[in-house]
Specification:
The protein has 308 residues and is an alpha+beta fold. The chain has 2 domains: 76 residues, Rna Polymerase Sigma Factor, Chain: A (Orthogonal Bundle), CATH 1.10.1740; 154 residues, Nuclear Transport Factor 2, Chain: A (Roll). The protein has a 7-stranded mixed beta sheet, with helices on both faces. The longest helix has 24 residues. About 10% of the residues have low confidence.
Length: 308
């Protein structure tokens, strides 16, 4: 067996572990495979004879590659979401604000959806709101038991700073409502569940019944293909917009705690795209909906997906 054959064989023994690390860091199977391939190229260009712990070296390498990809992703302009609820509401109301050039569907391979389920969609959604450094510190230390000294080396920070990053991420991942809000959360969840069910079923009358007559729906510029904020008033117009959004998106939407209140998230394969926050009156009517798609705003939200 040649040195290259030995190296390839050794790498294959670690491949699934590396894919697992990269997938949890990147939330995308295709990106994870790219990161693993890049790690292999780095290994072939390095002097493997000087590597004492191949598994540790490879984990560090794939983490660094993934970190670079996460940082690049943060600085890369996002594609317009397209067919988001404020745009659909405008179109259904005849405002004509939605442009004709809708974005391509945000589909994912079936295998990636299965992986999202195995990792936990709720966890992937919350990880998607963390900064690259927070995500890497949490995943490597809490999920793969890498010592903070080694995680710090990947990040180029001190172990103490890395420990603080992981602690912040941990608080967001494990966030939960306080007992004082339990009864209100139950009421909010009942209303949000009914709203999502009515939107999925295209039930106009049920939607209107859940909405206050003066309800206001707002969407940020990233949520609207036209690229400017949208505001829609009135129960019938907001209900029509929810139905116009289509069942494909609402079927993939889930209830979640958003900054401690019940809302709705759209996160195909764990990639957070849209969050709906709601204000619900004591009478159980939705008085306001805010549709958030701006990456910076999404990154500041504290999320926890609720089980079905």
């Amino acid at each position: 067996m040649t040195d290259n054959d030995w190296l390839a064989s050794a790498f294959e023994q670690h491949r699934e572990h590396l894919r697992a690390v990269a997938y949890r860091l990147l939330g995308s199977m295709s990106d994870a495979d790219d990161a693993v391939q890049d790690t292999w190229l780095r290994l072939t260009s390095a002097d493997a004879s000087e590597v004492e712990n191949l598994g540790g070296w490879l984990t560090t390498a794939v983490a660094r590659v993934s970190l670079n990809m996460l940082r690049s992703r943060r600085h890369r302009p996002e594609r317009p979401v397209g067919d988001s609820w404020p745009a659909s509401a405008e179109a259904s109301a005849g405002d004509g604000a939605a442009g004709p050039g809708a974005a391509a569907p945000l589909g994912d391979p079936e295998s990636e959806a299965v992986l999202a389920d195995s990792v936990g969609l709720a966890l992937l959604v919350v990880l998607d709101t963390l900064t690259p450094a927070e995500r890497l510190a949490f995943v490597l230390h809490d999920m793969f038991a890498m010592p903070f000294t080694e995680v710090a080396d990947v990040l180029g920070r001190t172990p103490e700073a890395t420990r603080q990053l992981a602690s912040r991420a941990r608080r967001r991942v494990r966030g939960a409502p306080s007992p004082d809000h339990a009864a209100d959360i139950v009421r909010q969840r009942e209303v949000a569940t009914a709203f999502l069910a009515a939107a999925r079923g295209g039930d106009m009358s049920a939607l209107v019944a859940l909405l206050d007559s003066d309800v206001t729906l707002t969407g940020d510029a990233a949520a609207v293909p036209a690229g400017r904020p949208a505001v829609v008033h009135g129960a019938e117009r907001v209900a029509a917009g929810a139905i116009a959004a289509g069942t494909a998106r609402t079927e993939e939407s889930r209830l979640a705690l958003v900054d401690g209140a019940v809302g709705i998230v759209y996160a195909p394969a764990g990639h957070l795209r849209i969050v709906l926050t709601m204000k619900i009156s004591d009478a159980g009517r939705i008085t306001a909906i805010d549709v958030i798609a701006d990456p910076d705003r999404l990154g500041r939200l504290h999320l926890a997906v609720l089980p079905d």
